[in-house]
Amino acid sequence: QNLTISSTGNTGTSGTNWSLTDNGALVTITHTNTASINTSVIEGYLNLGRNVLITGSGSGHGISISNNITKTSSAVSSLTLKTASFVAIAANVSIQTNAGAMDVVFWTDSDNSQSLGGTNNDEVNIYAGVTIKTLGGKILMAGGLDDGAFGGTANDGIPDGYCYRGASGLAGVNLGQPTATGTVVSLLSGGGDITV
For position 188, what pLDDT does the model report? Predict the structure, then answer.
């Protein structure tokens, strides 16, 4: 039931098990089951200065990024990956802007299931060699609800809790896998806030 973002995914405004809603400043891409979307769809809206929200419709709907996402225009925008499950970025992939700030938000456990404990795997996995570059935009890896918890601000569009890994072997946020080798993970905000 996961969404894969790759250079071979579907293009357009809808595809197998996913659809897109354009409300002007905010573009929301929702997947309902196993789906694949092309990176060019996301890049196109980011380059127009839109805020892009990618989300699943239920628990167990993880998001995997297999190829680079690059914003090339000077328009300020944001990319939010919001899921009740996990977010994973494959090795040596980059999410970056080459001009103009871009916020990047990884929001897992959006249903706050970790509050019940158990073995839910609602973590962020960033594999070796990944680069995230935002040119002044914030980089945020968090989870749970947008309810003002832990000193956050309620209803500001970003999570205020924690990413969560119920099973052993990984953490809630993994910058490079603990049992693997490879190039370091680079979080380059250019002065923007980095919150993990």
Answer: 98
Beta bridge partners of 28: 21, 53
- Rounded to an integer, the average pLDDT of 114-132 is 83
Regarding pTM above 0.90, the answer is yes
Taking alpha carbons only, the member of 147, 165, 151, 155 closest to residue 195 is 151
Closest CA to 110 of 31, 42, 56, 48: 56
Q: Which of 97, 99, 103, 112 is nearest to 157 (CA)?
A: 103
Backbone angles phi, psi at 43, to 5 degrees: -60, -40
Q: Output the average pLDDT for the chain.
A: 91
Enter the tokens of residue 82. 């919001």
Tokens encoding 162 = 């924690």
CA angle 9, 28, 98 (to 5 degrees): 70
Strands 51-56, 26-31: parallel, antiparallel or unpaired by DSSP?
Answer: parallel
pLDDT 10s digits, 35-85 = 999 999 999 999 999 999 999 876 678 999 999 999 999 999 999 999 999
For tokens 């405004």, the residue is 13
Gap between the Cα atoms of 60 and 58, Å rounded: 6
